[in-house]
Amino acid sequence: MSPFHELYKRLTQAMDVPDLVIRVAGVKLFHAGEDIPDDIRMYAPDGITVTSCQAIRSATMEDAVYLTKENIGCVAAAISLGLVDEYQPDPLEGEREYTEIMRKSSGKEEDFVPPAPADFTEGMVYACQDSGHKEFSLFGEEDSGRYATLEIARKAISHMRSIQPPDILGVFYFSPDFEEVDITPDIVVLSLRPVELCRVVQGYQYLTGERVKADIGGVRAGCADLIVEPFMTGEINFSPYCLGARLIAKFEADRMGMSMPFSVFETMVKGMEASMTGFPFPQYPGANPNP
């Protein structure tokens, strides 16, 4: 049993609710020059592209996904995760899940040219009305865009974490049950109901006394907020998910994302175990979703 799998089992046991399933994913970032095992490469999507949000959800449902710049379905996530240069002037090759929504929304499918990474970085995509690029809308001619003006879009983008210059060859998303390769995740992502989020924060604080702060936005939850933020800061972050996570990855209405480095996940689990008698989770209203 891998250390990740063992901690996951201990996490579920510390909740003390029979048959409760806690959705957890591991994320491993492979840097330039690292060897990537064939047993991981085999989980690259075949003939399709997958967004980072979709990969997280798949991993929490006991699947595994290996994403590269060739098969990632979201250009913004490719930027955040360090797979492509944020100022690349040319669109990524091939059809991408996120920009194909734009193509269909534009009403000019044959003439549509997808946005390049630079168009995201410069705010052209997120402020599609103000930038004059209505072809970058997701919901037709009247789509407001994600931000009101280019200035606001650029301000928001400047606060989104990204691994730049790009230094990542691939990102592997996997469940705690993954045993083909002995691998420890860089980041652990939990997809939780609010009542479960309450309990894991209590467990973490029991041993640390540290407040848990959220640095969140309305876009790039499954990449910038839930992977890159804790990867770069070493701290916990959480998110209500984003547009892509809700509409493309289909995260349910009662779920929130919480993420942390693996070492912090270990501390959290130990704290939950040690504090079970002080925080009787089975008594929390709604703790058992199937009473």
Essential attributes:
291 residues, alpha+beta, 2 domains, 6-stranded antiparallel sheet, 11 helices, 12% strand
As a whole number of angstroms, the C-alpha radius of gyration is: 19 Å
The side-by-side strand order for the widest beta sheet comes to 2-3-1-4-6-5
Secondary-structure element pattern, one letter each: HEHHEHHHHEEHHEHEH
By helix and strand content, what is the structural category?
Answer: alpha+beta
E-strand count? 6
Terminal residue distance: 30 Å
Give the mean pLDDT. 96
Strand-residue proportion: 5-15%
Query: Shape from CA axes?
Result: globular
**Whole-number count of domains:** 2
Largest sheet: 6 strands, antiparallel
* Low-pLDDT windows of residues: none
Helix content: 25-40%
DSSP helix count? 11
Brief rundown of the structure:
By secondary structure, the chain is an alpha+beta fold. The protein is 35% helix and 12% strand. It folds into two domains: 3-69 and 170-283, no CATH class; 87-158, no CATH class.
